[in-house]
Write a structure and sequence with these properties.
The chain has 8 helices and 8 strands, in the order H-H-E-E-H-H-E-E-E-H-E-H-E-E-H-H. Helix 5 links the parallel strand 5 and strand 6 (170-176). The chain has a domain at 41-189: Gcn5-related N-acetyltransferase (GNAT) (Aminopeptidase). The chain has an 8-stranded mixed sheet. By secondary structure, the protein is an alpha+beta fold. Helix content is 37%, strand content 27%. The protein binds coenzyme A.
């Protein structure tokens, strides 16, 4: 995130939540940036994925939007009003301009969550270059009222399904290692962990360091064919 964006976000947060909450939020962001900036990078072969059965207690509808004009004013407001409207609007416009698709998941006609995909490239420098047929999944969000019901893994599986009809490459997604809800959610999808990485972009150059830790085993546990046949040893 650029310094100007960070200042803009902090200013809006200050207006909404007051000084004490803002100081706590800035401390948390600082700690995460300095000590918990590792990302687990996950992949899924679009030609080989086996989609798991996700049980969701409600009927959900998934829609793919390819331009801003397809997004209703009400959904745009829902998507932009919960954090920084100015930055959120700018992000949405830039993403559509670069060819990204926005996937909405609706529960009883109301927006429950969303996620983005971009084929062949990423919005920001990535850990490695993507091939033309690869797709990046990013910025997934389920609104608080709908969390914990399997909506995010359901949306991700529907997206993988939709992408696989035209695309035979790999899908990639990354998640901060501190983000337990998203890690848990991704374990319910066909995504498997490639590794753990840190990246820094300086003057247009992106430096990536891959870190050896147990995140790969933690995420992939139970999805290795050997695990499925022989079971995983647990104590
Ligand atoms: C991460 C996120 C997308 C998961 O969506 P979801 O539809 O709730 O996903 P799931 O139903 O699979 O729940 C995932 C985990 O959330 C946690 N959870 C359960 N109920 C919850 C609730 N009411 N509120 C918050 N988190 C809850 C649980 O740890 C759950 O894991 P479990 O099923 O193994 O217990 C959602 O929490 C979210 O939007 N978070 C904020 C944005 C974010 O972090 N996005 C991902 C990075 S781009």
């Amino acid at each position: 995130m650029s310094i100007s964006n960070a200042i803009l976000r902090s200013t809006v947060y200050l207006k909404r939540h007051g000084l004490v909450a803002t100081i706590r939020r800035v401390q948390l962001a600082g700690n995460r940036a300095l000590f918990a900036d590792r990302m687990a990078v996950l992949y899924c072969d679009l030609s080989e994925r086996g989609l798991p059965q996700i049980n969701v207690p409600v009927v959900l509808k998934v829609k793919r939007l390819r331009s801003l004009t397809e997004l209703s004013a009400e959904n745009l407001k829902t998507m932009t009003s919960f954090w920084n409207p100015k930055l959120a609007n700018r992000n949405i416009r830039e993403r559509f301009e670069k060819g990204a698709s926005l996937w909405l998941v609706e529960c009883q006609e109301r927006l429950a969550g969303y996620g983005w995909t971009l084929q062949g490239r990423t919005m920001a420098p990535y850990y490695f270059p993507l091939a033309q047929d690869d797709v990046h999944l990013f910025d997934f969000h389920v609104f608080p009222l709908y969390r914990g019901r399997g909506i995010n893994p359901y949306l991700i599986c529907r997206i993988l399904d939709g992408l696989a009809t035209n695309c035979r490459g790999r899908a990639f997604i990354e998640v901060a290692e501190w983000n337990d809800p998203q890690l848990s959610s991704l374990r319910k999808t066909p995504f498997r962990c490639l590794g753990s990485a840190r990246s820094f972009t300086i003057m247009g150059y992106t430096l990536v360091s891959w870190i050896k830790n147990d995140i790969v085993a933690q995420i992939n546990k139970g999805t290795d064919p050997a695990d499925q046949i022989f079971g995983t040893a647990t104590k």
